[in-house]
Structures are given as C-alpha cells and as structure tokens.
Design a protein that fits this description.
34% of the residues lie in helices and 22% in strands. It is α/β, with parallel strands linked by helices. It has two domains: 30-169, Peroxisomal Thiolase, Chain A, domain 1; 200-353, Peroxisomal Thiolase, Chain A, domain 1 (3-Layer(aba) Sandwich), CATH 3.40.47. The strands form three sheets. Strands 1-2-10-15-14-11-12 form a seven-stranded mixed sheet, with helices on both faces. Strands 4-3-9-7-5-6 form a six-stranded mixed sheet, sandwiched between helices. A two-stranded parallel ribbon has the order 8-13. The chain is globular, with a radius of gyration of 20 Å. It starts with a helix and ends in a 7-residue tail after the last strand.
Length: 360
C-alpha cells in the first residue's frame, strides 16, 4: 500500500518524459521532442550578395539596395516583408495561419522589424540579439510551436548602408577598413516553423550566455563574438553528451576569418576539436578574394540568408542530415562605443536533424 502511494506521488513530482514536450537538459539546452520542423524558408539579398558563391541560393534578388524605397531603413523592412511572403508562398500558407512572429534587426529599437510587421496583424515578438537574432528567433519559435502554437515565423535582416550609418561612419566618409573588419550583409532570411511539418526537424535549442573578453574594437567583431560561440557550442556538447563528429555541419553565424580561427582555438581549450565539418556563414556568403569584404560577412541577414537560402534547402534535399547552427552577435550600441565600453557577445544554437526520432 505504502509503495503504491509512493509511486503516485513520484509520478506527480517527476513526470515522465512523454508527459511534456520541450524540456531542459543539462545547463542551457532545451530538447524538442515533438515533430517541430522548418516547413519552408526564404532568403532575400541585393547585388553584392548575388555576386557571391551563394548567389543562386537567394529566392529574391534586387540589384537596387533600396528595394524601391526612399531610405535604406525602409528597404530593410521591405526585405523582411519579401522574405516572409516568399516563405509563406513556398508552404502554400497565409499570414492568417501564423500564431506568432519573431523578428529582429540591427537598427535602433528594431524599427525594420516593427515597421515590417505593422500590417501583418500577427502577434509580434521583437528581438534584439544583434547578429545572433535569427537563431534566437528560430529557437524561440520552435519552443512556442512545441507548446503554445502551431505555426510561427522567424525573420531577421541587416543592411550594409543602414548599419554603417548607425554604428560607424557615414558612407561618404570613405574610412579605411582594416583586415579584421567585416561587410554587413544586405540580406534577410525567414523560416516558417511548424508542428508536424516534416524535415528538417528542430531537435534542440541552446540559448547562450553573454561573454566578454574585453574586445573594444568595433572593426573586430569576430574576436568579440568568438568567445560566446565557443561557450554556447561547448555547453551544448556537454548538455547532450555529443561531440563535433556527430554532425554533418557545424556553422557559426558571422565570425569571419579572424573569428573563425579564434573559434577553433577556443574550442580546443574546451576539449573539442572542430574538423572539416565546421564553417562560418561570414566566410560562405562572399568571395573574399574578389569582393573586398576583408574578414567576411556580418549582420543579422548573414546567417539568416545562408541558413534560409542554402543550408535548410540542402537538408530538405537530404544532402545534409544533422546541422548545428549558431548565430553570433556583438551586443554593442552607438552609445556604448562612444562611452568606451567593451563589446560583449552572445551566440544561440539550433540543432537540426532530418531524423524524426532524435539524435540524443
């Protein structure tokens, strides 16, 4: 009798894994047990992006960086609208079917996202994770789709001209760019995250901690973000008891040449060796030898476009089966730079798999 009472009490206190869906394991990782996946995705870019190695992977290209708008900031809102529209069109879905919209950009107060969403009539969750925003959005959308919603949209964007005007110098200034500098992508990416959508499935999400190793050079974003990327990735491996060899592709957001090399070194210190299956979106978007982008690409739109236009479609085709995608962000503002602050970083990770049953 006593044993039966104990079992009933234990079932209430410690529910079985099947009694709930999304649940935390380890220190920072959330496992998605249900069939939450990427129903469709779309990427939008401009002329420079079309001239890079992934130019053919963009769904929409406009050689006019203003996208027919009067300002670069309005153009960024337009890119988000186009990316969402295209993702919905691919899925044969309507905006009315979307339960929540997760969106973010680099502009002050996330105006590109807010202005883009104002006609959608969809509950809007504005995000700011700097260049980590797309993985943050997809991660949150996946948790929501696993619990409180069926269809969520995640979108992020950046624009070279609006970012330069806000963070560095007016374009007319013509300042010298050091080798460590990166080129902010004029791009946007959107992903429709749905329950029972089919592969690729979102298997896990690791939300990162803010890391700061004292970098204060805004022309060296890779070095500022790499510590956060290494912290998130190594924690994911520890939480899931997996290692780099378990994945077809491990992809950071926009560390560029400087940050990607530092990432390898930092991961070795953590006890993990990144092999040939490691790459960086900032090294994939442009051809550094002919496009004069110094260390590579950056911006929210960098990882958003590479994932939405290239990686996720590769998974749908079966070319890739397991992917770890980390969007990386430098959490600075014009005010913090003017006040001499160092640049903290953050990285959020999404684990994709073509296998419904899970990889853990």
């Amino acid at each position: 009798m006593f044993f039966c009472i104990f079992l009933r009490f234990a079932e209430k206190l410690f529910p079985k894994r099947g009694d709930f869906l999304a649940h935390k394991i380890g220190k920072q990782t959330i496992i998605i047990d249900s069939a939450v996946g990427i129903r469709s995705s779309a990427a939008v870019g401009s002329k420079k992006e079309s001239e890079g190695p992934l130019g053919s992977s963009f769904d929409i290209i406009n050689d006019d960086s203003r996208f027919g708008e009067k300002t670069w900031e309005k153009a960024e809102s337009k890119m988000q609208e186009l990316a969402c529209w295209k993702a919905l069109k691919k899925a044969e879905a309507e905006m009315a079917e979307i339960d929540f919209l997760f969106a973010g950009d680099l502009l002050n107060q996330c105006i590109a996202s807010a202005f883009s969403a104002r006609g959608s009539k969809v509950p809007f969750i504005g995000l700011y994770g700097a260049c980590s925003t797309f993985a943050e959005g997809v991660g949150l959308a996946s948790v929501f789709a696993d619990s409180a919603a069926k269809n969520c949209l995640a979108v992020a964007s950046s624009h070279f001209c609006s970012a330069e005007r806000q963070y560095r110098f007016p374009l007319e200034y013509g300042g010298q760019r050091p080798p460590s500098a990166q080129w902010t992508a004029t791009a946007a990416g959107a992903a429709l995250v749905s329950r029972d959508s089919g592969a690729p499935f979102v298997k896990a999400v690791t939300f990162g901690t803010v890391e700061d190793l004292g970098i204060n050079d805004q022309n060296n974003m890779g070095a500022a973000m790499a510590p956060a990327a290494a912290a998130t990735l190594s924690q994911f491996f520890r939480d899931t008891y997996t290692d780099p060899d378990d994945y077809d592709l491990i992809l950071t957001g926009d560390l560029g040449a400087v940050g990607a090399q530092l990432m390898r070194e930092l991961m070795l210190r953590e006890g993990f060796s990144l092999g040939d299956n490691y790459n960086d979106c900032g090294l994939m978007l442009y051809d550094r030898e002919i496009q004069q982008v110094e260390s590579g690409a950056s911006g929210c739109g960098c990882s958003a476009a590479v994932l939405s236009g290239h990686v996720l479609p590769q998974m749908k085709k079966g070319v890739l089966k397991t992917v770890l995608a980390l969007s990386t962000g430098a959490l600075m503002s014009p005010t913090s730079v003017q006040q001499g602050e160092t640049i903290p970083g953050v990285a959020h990770l999404v684990c994709f798999s073509n296998e419904k049953g899970g990889i853990f």
